[in-house]
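Purpose: get a first structural picture of the assembly so the mutagenesis plan has something to point at.
Setup: three entries, given in the order below. No constraints added.
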Amino acid sequence: MSRQITIEPVTRIEGHAKITLRLDDAGKLESARFHVNEFRGFEKFCEGRLFHEMPLITERICGICPVSHHLTSAKAGDAILGVQPPRPAQLLRELMHLGQTIQSHAMHFFMLAGPDLILGPDSNPALRNVAGLYQADPQLTVKAIRLRKFGQEIIERLGERKVHPNFAIPGGVNKALTVVDRDAILAGVPEMQGIVRDGLGILKGWAEKNADEMRGFAVFSTGYLGMVDENDAVQLYDGELRLVDSKRKQLERFNGADYLDFIAEHVEPWSYLKFPYYRRLGWPAGTYRVGPLGRLNAATRLATPLAQHEYVQFQQAAGGNVVEGSLYYHYARLIELMYALERVQHILADPDILSKDLRTTAGINHREGIGILEAPRGTLIHHYWVDENGLLEKVNLIVATGHNNYAMSRGVEEVARRTFPGGTVTEGMLNRVEMVIRAYDPCLSCSTHAAGQMPLLVEVRGPKNELLEQHQRPAPAVSSPAPTANRP
Amino acid sequence: MNPKVTVASDWLAGCAGCHMSLLDIDERLVKLLEVADLHATPITDLKHPPASGVDVGILEGAVNNSAGEEVARRMRQCCKILVALGDCAVFGGVPTLRNGFRCEAALRRAYLETESTAEGRVPDDPELAQMKTARPLGDVVDVDIHVPGCPPSPDAIFHVLTELAAGRRPKLTGKLLDWH
Amino acid sequence: MAREVTSPAAVANITINGRRLQAVTGQSVLEAATAAGIRIPTLCHHPRLPAHGSCRLCLVEIEKQRALQPACTFPVSEGLVIRTETTQLTEARRFALQMILSERSHYCMFCTASGSFENTDCELQRLSYEHGLNCWDYTPHYEQRWPVDGTRQHFVMDHGRCILCRRCVRACSSIAANHTLAVHQRGTRTMIGADDDVPFGRSSCISCGSCLQVCPTGALSERHSAFTGHGTDFKRHKAVCQGCAVGCGIEVLVRDNQLARIEGDWDAANGGLLCAAGRFEVLQPKPPRIRTPLLRERGKLAPVSWERALDCVAEKFRRAERVACLASPRLTNESLTALTLFFNETMRTNEVALLYGEAPPLNIGAPASLADVADSDCIVVIGGNPMEHQRVAGYLTRRSLDHGGKLILVHNGSTPLDRFADLHLELEDISHPGASPFERLHATYHLRAQSLNQLKRMVETALKPVVLYGSGLSTTVYAAMRTLPVQARFLPLIAGTNTRGAVQLGLSARPVSGEMLYLMAADDLPNPAPLPNRQFTVVHAAYQSTWTDSADVVFPGLMWAEKNGHVTNLEGKTLEVRPLILAPPEMRPAWKVLLQLSERVGRSLTYDDICAFAGNRQPERSAV
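Result (structure tokens, whole complex):
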């Protein structure tokens, strides 16, 4: 008989999310769904606001990657003005973006995904979190904090605060970089590179010990989308978008402003997060992945030497083809961290970085503007339509994590299929499901993968929706004397 | 040695920025862990606070759906002191911009009308939470401490938590009081 | 600014917070307290606007008064005992703030004025911080969507941030005298609106920005400076607007060498009032900047070194038979001095003229100041259109009308002041019918004797008449003005920022001839009419234009905010111009270029020569 299994972690992409697994009559997994339960309505309630407010409004979409929205929004504003910001302003925007990439990737790898890799996915759930990490390895935890802080401080030096900064405006940026700030950032890079190397060591160590897992965990074929420069190297701030198929063949290379020709969004009734796909192949064949793995597969190289060196090794895992295993996201993330740090050095050495030529002014020259860049989690698109006074008439946003939505469901399904042959729900299965979601680092990463344990409620229901089995994992106390009792 | 104050946190219709600002206390996190037990929080665990309750509950985000109302009420029940963290929880914040539009209009725009959406439909699965008017936390449950800011600065958050750990009621003045 | 005291100043002995003070009868409690250095929080109050008393932040305790009283409107009187700081007052003020915050949707997180206690530009927010408000007692009715009016080009109105303090309404009437803004509807429907409730951009609004400058919250905000900073992020510099001959006092906000915002200087003659050109248009996008000398070779302009460009121009100067110079009236006195000296002495020619700009005879009678205009009880505008070409003078004219002044307009055609005129007299064009196109631009207008007499009679009955007069009037008219009663004062309606300074050097706008032309364009931009063709043209300019595109040599010039020197405004005042931002590298001030040219031509001038010629006017030793 067919059954539905509901997993309700308090997973929140702007709210709550949960997973349901549908079993067929033979007890085999039929499908998995990753529901996103939160909806705030930015695409509607920004109507009537002024486009020059949007960098400050849209950054409130996310508190982990506000800079992505802030900069993408300013780029859409540039397009409405019909100008390119002066080169120094573009460098400064990219610098802030790199700061964000560094802090976001650092936090995710060390504090969220890291405990699985450092303490082990089967270690005591009560300690599988940052507090436990600190107990086990205080030095490493402090390093992780410092790496995240380094990225946040770049943002703060430019935009006056770490979360929801004020820096990019349509046409440019609103302040210059001081010599003091430049030197302080540069001075910190070597230490941070050391921490990333530590991270790479941890990951590679785990990968070696768990080679099967790396190779076989949530592996499936999709396309890959990422931004590249003129040499097809990964670019995070500006460039064209490159889409490759699962054989690494280029399907498209396009200007972000033409995204509607290539990307469409599918809606399912059971999730508030839409499913972007490649138009020509339709839904769901046109699924593609974004984010670190997506970018590293869509590009052919990295523009900085140390990162490129790692990239070559990374590619060897797939013999030069695309790397498909979901756990390789962690590896890709560390490579991007390395790239971001090198790129920071490169930009800070540019004589234009201290320039005060920060802004191109213009009136409203177009009634439409599109901004695109690569947020830590993937390609981010802001599309605004304004009236002649600059008030927004329409807004379309495709948020990075969204592109991975279907892939996450697929990943969960793959994992469930492998670890769920007969129908009983085990602790291990629940862990593995968490690990899949965690690999994709959905926006509001903290939501779906509390480092440690995602409290899960799994219900197995019969065809009349009667409750057959229930498994729940208690929320652990960090260091309280006695474990807490079952709770609803 | 004093028993540590037990803390649980969660977020509603927010962006997680307030929790990120909490993490921005950086190395002071170690000091904080000396006086506070962080239970259900994004950096440890996300589920409901323990049934035995915690001393301090922290909620970020406005309440804009049925799930949020539940979480808010549950947190209020099981904590002695409830902290509204950030402009969304304190004032309503950015999520309340939706209130000027009908929910249906917002859903229609997102799932039917947006230019990239193909064969759209408004999600209506019963598993999904029900939309409600976005409100500050204080309109749903009684709040003891308000910490405004978008987000509140790490200094303000650290001050509030350490004061609560010391058994004092935190007061926000000067640089720590910032609505921005 | 103290309210006018109509009776001889009588002292009122009052007590504030136990301190005995002497106030002046007619003052408000707030004015008396401020004069004594006692601070009372205010919100709707503004020192340059009539008091209103609507916000209730300035409540004070006054003995023998049944209720708390607003200090801004309560008059002092002998024996008044006042307390400004008590627990009850603090609570009352907090309550007033809570009430204000509950009325509309105050989204601080994406407001350009919003900030921390130390550097917020929002007075509502600062008062809230001061009073320790960390939550709102009454949740706003967020369902109500407050409109954002973006119909004005330069600044926008977000009604959700408006606290109905009416500062904008008061500024529009008492500062700008335009009376566009008013309060519409009542109760919870009260809204600030323009005319009979039309979008601001389609109303009688003149975009002077007075309302913007006084708005205490982010309700009115400027597009150009939105989100570029607030409070102490900016350096504020007092300066002189170089948009026209009025020379209003401005405060320029600068950040990282960018001109962020222009505000009116409350302490200058214009009293904070500006026009759209001086406040906003000056910051609008400009054509690309000329950053290096350019030389035309094989038909194309290409960047060259200063030395090469100077050599080339000097060579041409040496060879040319006749050279001519046209200068922008935006140039400083020092530049114009250097220019005239160079062409008269080094080049031995008098073919030096202004590119444009006119000044009427300056010796008509006692000069009027801008303050005289505002204070006048009878204004005559003859042969000019100040509302277009000397705008703040025009606005001050309207202000005088608000105080009961009379207006006599003498012109032909129509002007914005027409509907306010008490007497309207027509000028007649008496230019020669066969006049050349150039002469047609400088037509001559005459006023018939009968009308002149009418004019005289009205002026005679006035106590403080002011005559604003333009160029191109007939001899009779100027003669008649000279015979007006002795109390009449005169303000020439001069066209061109520093035309008065140029005229004092003997320059005027007239055709010049010469096969080589040196065009000192400064940061002017060309009108559509191209220049007559010459064999060789040198253009000295800040911005690319059709002039520079067709020039043989181009020298990069400074723009107004980079200059050092003096200009003379229409009142005859010499105003100092100081650099507010650093010019791009490789810039040389105009006088230096002329000196270097003179060396190469072979008849050197020195810096001292220029000084001697200029008398006590020093050429700009600019920072660049």
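DSSP finds six helices and seven strands in chain B.
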